[in-house]
Amino acid sequence: SEEEETDGRARPVQVLVVKDDHTFELDEAALSKILLAEEVRDREVVAISVAGAFRKGKSFLMDFMLRYMYSQASDKWLGDPEEPLTGFSWRGGSERETTGIQIWSEVFLVDKPDGSK
């Protein structure tokens, strides 16, 4: 399981690890900590997935999605163009940055227009 966040900030959490022998390992404890939290466990869950070839901008796109979710659909969700994107790790170059499956440690709770959660 990943190290506990020490500063209280949300972060990516690795829930599926790609092993050296090309097998996969599910980190059930990490996944359960997020999805079985008191405020989440009885709600419907929607997962948004970004997949594709390595070094093609997936983390960059996910950071834009985070910015939108944190803004709660404000008209100004794009923010200052000089403000750096934060969240999932990304950088220039040709080396792979992320493998496996990561999820965001903070679940965005939304009440739907019909009153369901």
Automatic annotation (TrEMBL):
Per its UniProt record, what Pfam families does this chain match? GBP
**UniProt lineage:** Eukaryota, Metazoa, Chordata, Craniata, Vertebrata
Instruction: Note the superkingdom of the native organism.
Output: Eukaryota
- Tell me where in this chain the GB1/RHD3-type G domain is found: 42-117
Write out the entry's keywords from A to Z: GTP-binding, Nucleotide-binding
* Similarity remark: Belongs to the TRAFAC class dynamin-like GTPase superfamily. GB1/RHD3 GTPase family.
- Claim: Transmembrane is one of the keywords in the record: no
What is the official name of this protein in its record? GB1/RHD3-type G domain-containing protein
Q: What's a Gene Ontology MF term here?
A: GTP binding
